[in-house]
Design goal:
single chain; Muramoyl-pentapeptide Carboxypeptidase, domain 2; globular
């Protein structure tokens, strides 16, 4: 006979009264193993749900200190009332009345087509050209930093052309100076100025303003720290004719301020 307590246990394990004792042990072990398996599966399921919830919460709540990958850092605005610092290298004024600082020699970096510019503006220039091309246009960098010798050669060549047109030498020099700066007074010698044309029209004339490249550059150059240096109707202030291909680096903050003011660089510095 099986004791009453054992009979209850055997019935819970699915063993009929009177069955051999080893069936009792076997069925109980099976029950225990099943319970253990069910418990383990339950714990694994709970752990999986917890991990999934944690991962989703991390995606929904990113690090607030991380900068957006696709957004460019906007320039720090320059107040319209703020007086520009003429000692700032980005605002170095070079024109017929303000020659290049004595002994000035920029640190140069080579960009495309063998051209060189001041190292401090190289990255912004390359980004501007790349984005212009990404917009479907074909800009061509045709002039950048010039040595004193190169500037002298360009100026003298134009003087000779003016003389060949019947001008006196003094007249030729004055007319040439409005198109090619007198050596020592050219922004190209700063390494901060570039001439950019559309590959569909590589002639440096007023028609450049109607090309797709110039339309894009005039609209977006300030975003990269550049300004159209010699705008229309500013010849008396700049000493140079309107050049819709000549861009000067002044930094993003100042480029934005100059664009908003509608002033040329000379006027901006004289506020």
């Amino acid at each position: 006979m099986v004791p009453a307590s054992d009979a209850v246990l055997m019935s819970k394990c699915g063993v009929l009264e009177g069955a051999p004792w080893y069936l009792f042990l076997t069925n109980c072990e099976v029950k225990i193993q099943k319970n253990r398996i069910l418990l383990s599966l339950g714990l694994l399921a709970a752990l999986s749900v917890g991990l999934i919830w944690f991962g989703l919460s991390q995606e929904v709540s990113p690090d607030s200190n991380a900068a957006p990958v696709s957004q460019a850092v906007p320039p720090t605005p320059v107040s319209q009332e703020e007086t520009p610092d003429p000692a700032d290298w980005r605002l170095c004024l070079v024109n017929p009345w303000h020659p290049l600082p004595e002994g000035y020699q920029p640190q140069l970096t080579q960009v495309e087509n063998g051209h060189q510019v001041d190292s401090r503006c190289a990255a912004d220039l390359e980004a501007m050209l790349a984005d212009c091309r990404a917009a479907g246009h074909a800009p061509l960098l045709c002039s950048s930093y010039r040595t004193q010798e190169k500037q002298t050669q360009l100026y003298n060549n134009l003087v000779q052309k003016q003389i060949a047109r019947g001008n006196s030498r003094s007249e030729a020099m004055a007319k040439a100076a409005k198109e090619v700066a007198v050596p020592g007074t050219s922004e190209h010698q700063l390494g901060l100025a570039v001439d950019i044309v559309d590959t569909q029209n590589q002639v440096l004339n007023r028609a450049q303003e109607d090309t797709a490249v110039q339309q894009w550059l005039m609209e977006h150059c300030w975003e990269y720290g550049f300004i159209l240096r010699y705008p229309p109707d500013k010849e008396e202030k700049t000493g140079i004719i309107y050049e819709p291909w000549h861009y000067r680096y002044v930094g993003r903050e100042y480029a934005q301020a100059i664009r908003q003011s509608g002033l040329c660089l000379e006027e901006f510095l004289q506020r």
